[in-house]
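Q: What would this complex look like in 3D?
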Amino acid sequence: LKAELEKLRGLHWDGEYLHFIEQTLLPHQEKWIMTDDWQVVVDAIRRLAIRGAPAIGVAGAFAAVLAFKKNKDDLNAWNEILEKIEHARPTAVNLSWAVGKIKQSSAGQVGDNLLNTITSQAEQIAIEDEDNCLKIAENGLEVIPPGSRALTHCNAGALVSYGIGTAVGVLRQAFEKGLLKEVYACEARPLGQGARLTMWELHRLKIPCTLLCDSAAGRLMQEGKIDLVMVGADRIAMNGDTANKIGTFNLAVLANRFSIPFYVAAPITTFDLKAKSGENIPIEYRHPEEVRKYGHYKTTEGQSRVYNPAFDITPGELITGIISENNIAYPPYNFS
Amino acid sequence: LKAELEKLRGLHWDGEYLHFIEQTLLPHQEKWIMTDDWQVVVDAIRRLAIRGAPAIGVAGAFAAVLAFKKNKDDLNAWNEILEKIEHARPTAVNLSWAVGKIKQSSAGQVGDNLLNTITSQAEQIAIEDEDNCLKIAENGLEVIPPGSRALTHCNAGALVSYGIGTAVGVLRQAFEKGLLKEVYACEARPLGQGARLTMWELHRLKIPCTLLCDSAAGRLMQEGKIDLVMVGADRIAMNGDTANKIGTFNLAVLANRFSIPFYVAAPITTFDLKAKSGENIPIEYRHPEEVRKYGHYKTTEGQSRVYNPAFDITPGELITGIISENNIAYPPYNFS
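A: Here is my prediction, written as structure tokens for the whole assembly.
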């Protein structure tokens, strides 16, 4: 598993540089970028070259370390950069969680001591993420009956984490245990992370997989081809309301109609203690060009007005179970 | 309205040639094709250069006329061609309805008499379609409260008919009457008829419109931005079950969750007397390349397996009303 894991990694810290795969070019090109510049990392997060809630948390932590190296003598400047890192993207809570951890660990320290402490902290965040993914996968096995055909959305695999991923991590583990028969992957327009990234991962894992347009998910369930839905999360509120890639809510409503179990898999870092419900989760609206184009293909007229939320909120009541590294929680959710 | 109609036409019969707009190139290029070759018409239907249930009925009727001109002395050959026209696409019932009308009208006739009869019949089908669209638009006004914000899917406008279209025809009429505030158009992957065609039509009609990915429809309703959904149909069963562009069913289930009225607008030619329910409607599965690409952009790896139904079935119970040229029918549906 470890070797497989290495093959699919999207992020790697070598002690000095952060290496990341340029996800916007996948599956057509596997280009790695190596940087010691925090701005390159923040830009990669904004551009979705590094994406997925756990991964941007890890990358944000290393960006904080890289930023400190260039601003050892100016803690104010560093703190301003931390703000920028924290707000690179609004919906996933993992960024602000990671920056918070770095800040906490740095308290009262200066110079090389501080550098050593926050480097250890960032490395620990990465290692724990890898570890949490494995635990999530192990915990998730419980909900996968033998012969399951699963539907997943967007990409919640190795590329969204420092480990094997969340939703796809569970499916991968279930496949290795002989429980999972096949995976259907929704494309996830506008940016096609399902078509580009999940299919790329599943092919490399040799898990039988089929791609569909987001619009075809209802028909797929109508035809009785799906036994369960498994998705990741960008932020989970205390009542179980879950922000995840736009289209997740559609799948949850459809699954509910067909009484198909709908699971969310995510590490505890994705839970937001301050969010009582989905109403407290900020939704990111992205650039119209994402919808007006697909890659370089123009999908519509240039002046078309566009509605482009990157996430939606799935109410906790529609979620059959939330799988974390600790356990599987069932509704009614009341996290704390 | 007539002048506007002319501007937006996708089909035109000049007495000898069928002219059609090459819809696959819209909105980037407005290319008209003029043909007296039935095979060009059938190919255009298969390629979706001519598309939409009413439009392919009309085009099929003219294809039958064009085919007869080249096979006046060989009725067997002509009948074989009629079979081909009828089966150019399986889901919309309008093709077989139109070919049936041509066959009926031709009974017992030969030579130029037969040609005159079927030409008149085809022209009547076209004129009636234009007329029916206007009546549908008029009937539909009843369900559009003032200030409405409507969601539509795929394209059910002028391009799918010989007139102003079905669902978009209603919205257009409602806009002119000052009832409609704006339209949201779902993209309709894989072929983007919403992004390419509906937005193109709505811009030309100067109706305020916003494009969204199919995956964003749930969020749009979640935000309270939609007052009603209005779609077309490819085939309607006697119990109201409706085949329409893939993704329509998703919208119906979502609308139902939010108690948003969900309407279907379609001419009587779209109703299939032989289909008791949706189970009797054949669903067309199209080529994987439609999903593996968007225009010329490759969305995934070349070997990706694909699930690509072109239509889904919306159960009658989820449809608030079905608007035809005759009236508005309400559930429980029991057509005959």
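A: To summarize the key features: Chain A touches chain B through 58 residues (CB under 8 Å). DSSP finds eleven helices and 16 strands in chain A.
Q: Very helpful, thank you.
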